[in-house]
Amino acid sequence: MNSTVAIIISIVCAFGVTAGLGFVIIPWLRKLKFGQTILEIGPSWHKSKQGTPNMGGIMFIIGIVVSFAVSMLTVHLTGGKIESDYSAIMQGKEKVLLISGLVLALGFGIVGFADDFIKIRLKRNEGLSPKQKTLGQLIMSFGYILTLWLSHNTSWYIPFIGVINFEKNALTAVIFWALSFFIIYGCVNSVNLTDGIDGLCSSVTSTVAIAFIVIGSIQSFLGIQLFAGALLGGMFGFLCWNWNPAKTFMGDTGSLFLGGMVVALGYLCKCPLLLLPIGIVYVCETMSDIIQIGYFKITHGKRVFKMAPIHHHFEMCGWKEKKICVIFSLTNAIGCAVGVLLLYFGNFNN
């Protein structure tokens, strides 16, 4: 099968399933009274969103899983090739990366679901405690890293430097595990922080998906293109319901799942460090939160931003939610372009 046709199938299938499920899942969430609780610390105008159905991320989780399964099966039945041409160079099993990446995302989605369920159904605004949430995320991270290690998916490509195999000795093994924990935990929670206003996380993540479709083309890796295509279709389908004014929110169920998807894409292209430029908005959201908290503690009450994460700062400055989504998405698209160019000119095929 032509790779372009396969990618289109993955995008259209995810879009159709996700958008279509909105007609079923949103009324179902309303019936269950799974409405969003708006905290007092948030912008005052967010109070109008009180009761909007939460956990809508279930829609694109189903859409992405169905799309990925359908597109992978279609390629397999038509004799297509999922893996890239340089699997042997990088070692490891790319099919393991694809399946374990999806399982990782689902695992984080389960942690998010537990958090949302406790917040909404059990009427505990904080959901899981920080320790419980961190433990759940670390367990999922450990399982994924262990899978990478056992399947020998331990080689990373560094643009303009080359391939680094972390199985060389004990020291590099420790570096691989430590860096992987940091990247996975950091990235997933950065994506989670970006989910703060209507359509923001979905639109920013759409640019990430497009970047990895291009990267898959550069690497001749159809598997990553189908994975990213399903993500892109899911985001477009969800935006039909999540664009301002949102009819549903993704909740931690959706945002943690998306974090897992983004991490998986970084490992699928064998260059997780590219997540820095490709997810530049995620990075800025996290850094603004860290800076705000750190400065507040050091100065005993002073703030750098009007509110953190930084998208709330711009809200407080008078920016409309749609404007923030557009500007942040364009900013992230520039970061994505930088990441793609680094990979392209970094002599990956050499």
> What summary fits the major beta sheet?
2 strands, antiparallel
Quantity of strands, as a count: 2
N- and C-termini, Cα separation: 27 Å
The rough form would be described as globular
Low-confidence stretches: none
Explain this structure to me?
- With 350 residues, the protein is mainly α.
- Helices cover 69% and strands 2% of the residues.
- It has 13 helices and 2 strands, in the order αααααββαααααααα.
- The chain has helices at residues 3-31, 57-77, 87-90, 94-120, 130-150, 170-194, 200-218, 222-242, 251-268, 275-278, 280-298, 310-316, 321-345, and strands spanning 155-158, 162-165.
- The protein has a two-stranded antiparallel ribbon with strand order 1-2.
- It is globular.
Short description:
The chain has 350 residues and is mostly helical. Helices cover 69% and strands 2% of the residues. It has a two-stranded antiparallel ribbon with strand order 1-2.
